[in-house]
Design a protein that fits this description.
By secondary structure, this protein is α/β, with parallel strands linked by helices. It has helices at about 10-25, 45-55, 70-75, 80-90, 110, 125-135, 155-160, 200-205; strands spanning about 1-5, 30, 35-40, 65, 95-100, 115-120, 135-140, 140, 165-170, 180, 190-195, 210. α4 (about 80-90) packs across α8 (about 200-205). It starts with a strand and ends with a strand.
Length: about 210
């Protein structure tokens, strides 16, 4: 089912329908604050496996996750570093991905053997609404592995015919999120990718001398 939303939000009846489908294992195409994503309930191992197979994602690569708020992010973390709290307070919601130590109880289909998870609270109200409805969502770009990102829902639906939910707000094309790795020793954080949020803003939130490349 496709929802053409523009600037609108889901109605209560639509939310109930969407939540039921996602809990039943549906794959969904939805907008984030950077590009369209293909996702599913991150805690549903069978759904994550279908998504991984549909995208052609390598078996040894973990999948990133979108959450509704900081509390939901903490619920995935084995440890929530002080730096994560500072960055979340300053720069979430927004295009900032934090890599934090992860609870080992999360589905192996999601983690792919990793001991960390990449998580963000996006600026997209639709993405946050979906996460509020059903919990953390897989949030990998809506394109087949090795191909260019799909900037429209039409292109994403062609790439992922198994997706039974799609949320269209028009064309999307933007720089990817900035990624900060917080899994190292205390107060030692790494900037893995400078994306929409510049390094200077990350350093301002963390304080001087704690961010490396």
């Amino acid at each position: 089912m496709r929802y053409d939303l523009g600037a609108a939000q889901l109605t209560t009846d639509q939310e109930l329908e969407v939540a039921a489908r996602l809990r039943d294992g549906a794959l969904a195409i939805y907008p984030t604050d950077t590009l369209y994503a293909i996702g599913c309930c991150a805690l549903d191992g069978a759904a994550v496996k279908r998504l991984r197979e549909a995208k052609g994602r390598e078996a040894d690569k973990p999948l990133p996750v979108i959450v509704a708020d900081v509390a939901q992010a903490r619920s995935l973390a084995l440890r929530w570093p002080e730096g994560a709290e500072r960055l979340a307070e300053a720069l979430w919601p927004g295009p900032l991905t934090l890599i934090v130590p992860v609870l080992p109880t999360l589905p192996p289909e999601l983690l792919a053997g990793a001991e960390s998870v990449a998580v963000r609270v996006p600026a997209s109200e639709i993405a946050r609404a979906l996460a509020r409805l059903v919990g953390p969502l897989v949030a990998t770009s809506a394109n087949l592995a090795g191909q260019a990102p799909c900037v429209t829902v039409d292109l994403a639906e062609k790439a992922f015919p198994l997706a039974t939910l799609a949320f269209d707000i028009g064309p999307l094309e933007g720089a990817p999120s900035t990624i900060v790795d917080l899994t190292g020793p205390r107060e030692t954080f790494r900037l893995l990718r400078e994306g929409r949020i510049p390094r200077a803003k990350v350093e301002a939130a963390l304080g001087p001398g704690v961010l490396s490349d």
